[in-house]
Amino acid sequence: MEYQIASKKDRVLAALIDHIVTSLFYSTIIGIPLGVAYVFLKDSLEFNNYQSVGKKIMNIRVVDYNYQSISPSIGFKRYVLFLIPIWGAIECLIYLFRESDQRVGDKFSETYVIKCEKDFSSPPLKDSSESKIEQKKSGIIKKSLKFIAISFFVLWFLSILLNIFF
Questions:
Q1: 17 SS3 class
Q2: Full domain range(s) for residue 156
């Protein structure tokens, strides 16, 4: 089955809707932990058909490279870079000005955002075979090392900026 990659316009509108939802969570003290959980897990919740509120409205969804629904750990991995201060702004600029339709978080977590029909129901998560697990382990180690190197570079760059301006 062929799937169409979601347009940047659809993704940006979905992100704006999700930002509004997150802001509503953050408006109360009790909602802050829920808002944080929503940010990291919004695309991997089964009860919402593996779609955030914004993605559901825009009829798009996140899938892995095999077009399967993503697990909560992959959902977290897509957004973990946002723990780095100002990363959201940097990634937004990278995404808007590059040719690819994948964010850095999509590449890092090996996911796509696809256009879907309103009645699209996701295939269940696949069970991995032994050999596939071994292949993923080596890939995860390489990506983890790359992530750590990038994180240190970004933190180093931010410390320089802070020393210049403050």
A1: helix
A2: 128-166
128 vs 16, 131, 133, 134, CA distance in Å?
34, 8, 6, 10
* Per-block mean pLDDT, blocks of 10 residues, the chain (166 long): 86 90 84 86 87 93 92 90 83 85 90 78 48 60 62 64 71
pTM: 0.67
If you compute the radius of gyration of the chain from its CA atoms, what whole number of angstroms results? 17
Q: In this structure, are 164 and 113 located in the same domain?
A: no
Tokens describing residue 69: 């629904």
Mark whether 122 and 143 lie in a shared domain: no
Please give the span between the terminal C-alpha atoms of the chain, in angstroms, as a whole number.
54
